UniProtKB/TrEMBL annotation:
Family affiliation: Belongs to the threonine synthase family.
This protein's pathway: Amino-acid biosynthesis; L-threonine biosynthesis; L-threonine from L-aspartate: step 5/5
Protein name: Threonine synthase
SUPFAM superfamilies: Tryptophan synthase beta subunit-like PLP-dependent enzymes
EC number(s) reported in the record: 4.2.3.1
Lineage: Bacteria, Pseudomonadati, Pseudomonadota, Alphaproteobacteria, Sphingomonadales
Entry keywords, A to Z: Amino-acid biosynthesis, Lyase, Pyridoxal phosphate, Threonine biosynthesis
Location of the Tryptophan synthase beta chain-like PALP domain: 87-323
Source organism per UniProt: Sphingomonas parapaucimobilis NBRC 15100
Superkingdom field: Bacteria
Length: 462
């Protein structure tokens, strides 16, 4: 399988190359040259497989020659063996047609584990036998940092430097990062806010001299391998609900458009997906884009669902590319315009291509809380607020097929918001129980380029 950039001018790469590169050199994102498809019989054949077996089957055409089938199966067994539920992503029934797909049984209680556990193993495998040492630099406001650290802790040929804003992540989020004491993990508390931390990371990628000293890679950047790993649970869930004989809809709490794009890939591969519901909070750029073609940045408002508080949804570019007839040059011009002005209109062709599969909903705090209370009262399920946004959208969708809401975080990661909505305070699962007794290690640095780059120069294990 070959990978092309959505902006048409970066080198074409194989799976290994696209995984290590992350972002394409022309500013675009890598996508497979063609969408592999499964016949209805092949989809039926997934029914008896475990999650890890399903994962290897779905990923194989994307991986191509970069791994043998046995190597791919071994990586899937390792990645998904670390989840606390035997089904990895179990389904829970809420009422006749409403279902939850629990994606939070990984080591850090967030759905990002599903993709990052696999990505960490892929990095390690692809670096083995080379003299490349990868330096992952990232900024986090909470969840991505801990999932990325867990995924690469102790892995050969990789260092990770994760910047978080000092005092501005929750204690559980900080401890999930800082109690990982592997020598290749470096937590940096920046004396500033998340935007300062993110600006420092951008500056490092743009600094020629620094980038030449390190082989930089990003976990925030939108790596194709992350999306590929997320396609799996759409198949796994739909098959258990009767696909390919039955059509299934999915409601997805959306920020960067990665998770719901994976659902689009599943549909392109032949899964009978009735609808993908893009659920946003009041930061509704995607809802405006999908409902009226208006893709324009607003001011970010802080909400109880921080992972959806975004101005720009990077992965939306991948959908626009397909909806544009895969014209990289035209999309590059359209995206350049957006980067200049902060606004663009979808073309009619793009809107028409997107409309049959996608709907969207903007869910405010009241509707989110109402959905969380309904789940607690009617189905005995305590949801995290991100999941609450998507469930609200699912219940209002009026679809007459099974609707699966993706549950993206364990409620214990957002105890205050859950208590406000439902009156009950979720307990941390036992497997992270001693988090508050463990030793922490992190370095506090001023929010300056020189301080952070000097620290990274001095601490990589080279
Ligand atoms: C990252 C995240 C999301 C948003 O997912 P995208 O792929 O960025 O759209 C939703 N919920 C939670 C809990 C997350 O961590």
């Amino acid at each position: 399988m070959r990978y092309l950039s959505t902006r048409g001018s970066a080198p074409v790469l194989d799976f290994r190359g696209a995984t290590l590169a992350g972002l394409a050199s022309d500013g675009g994102l890598y996508v497979p040259e063609t969408w592999p498809t499964l016949t209805p019989e092949e989809i039926e054949g997934l029914a008896g497989l475990s999650y890890a077996q399903t994962a290897a089957k779905i990923m194989a055409p994307f991986v191509g020659d970069s791994l043998t089938r046995q190597e791919l199966q071994d990586l899937c067994d390792t990645a998904y063996g670390r989840f606390s539920h035997a089904a990895v992503t179990p389904l829970v029934q809420l009422d006749h047609d409403q279902w939850l797909l629990e994606l939070f049984h990984g080591p850090t209680l967030a759905f990002k584990d599903v993709a990052l556990q696999m990505l960490g193993l892929l990095f390690e495998r692809f670096l083995r036998g080379t003299d490349t040492r990868l330096t992952i630099v990232g900024a986090t406001s909470g969840d991505t940092g801990s999932a990325a650290i867990d995924a690469v802790a102790g892995r050969a040929n990789i260092d990770i430097f994760m910047l978080h804003p000092a005092g501005r992540v929750t204690e559980i989020q900080r401890r999930q990062m800082t109690t990982v004491l592997a020598p290749n993990v470096h937590n940096i508390a920046i004396e500033g806010n998340f935007d300062d931390a993110q600006a420092l990371v951008k500056a490092m990628f743009n600094d020629r001299a620094f980038a030449d000293r390190h082989t930089l890679s990003a976990v925030n950047s939108i790596n194709w391998a992350r999306l590929m790993a997320q396609v799996v649970y759409y198949f796994y869930a739909a098959v258990r609900l009767g696909a390919p004989g039955k059509r299934i809809a999915f409601s997805v709490p959306t920020g960067n458009f990665g998770d719901v794009f994976a659902g689009y890939v599943a549909a392109r591969m032949g899964l009978p997906v009735e609808r993908l519901i893009v659920a946003t909070n009041v930061n509704d750029i995607l809802h405006r884009a999908l409902s009226s073609g208006d893709y324009s940045k607003g001011q970010v408002q802080a909400t109880a669902t921080p992972s959806m508080d975004i101005q720009v949804s990077s992965n939306f570019e991948r959908l626009l590319f397909d909806a544009n007839g895969r014209d990289g040059a035209a999309l590059a011009a359209q995206m350049k315009g957006f980067e200049g002005s902060g606004a663009m209109r979808l073309t009619n062709a793009q809107s028409q291509a997107i409309a049959p599969l996608f709907t969207s909903a903007r869910v405010d705090a009241d509707d989110m809380s109402r959905a969380m209370r309904w789940a607690a009262d009617e189905a005995g399920q305590i949801l995290d607020p991100h999941t609450g946004i998507a469930l609200s959208a699912a219940r209002k969708s009026g679809l007459d097929v099974p609707v699966v809401t993706l549950a993206t975080a364990h409620p214990a990661k957002f105890t205050d918001a859950v208590e406000r909505a439902t009156g009950s305070r979720p307990a941390l699962p036992r497997r992270v129980g001693d988090l508050f007794e463990r030793e922490e290690r992190y370095t506090t640095l001023p929010a300056t380029f020189d301080a952070v780059t000097a620290f990274i120069d001095g601490h990589g294990l080279r």
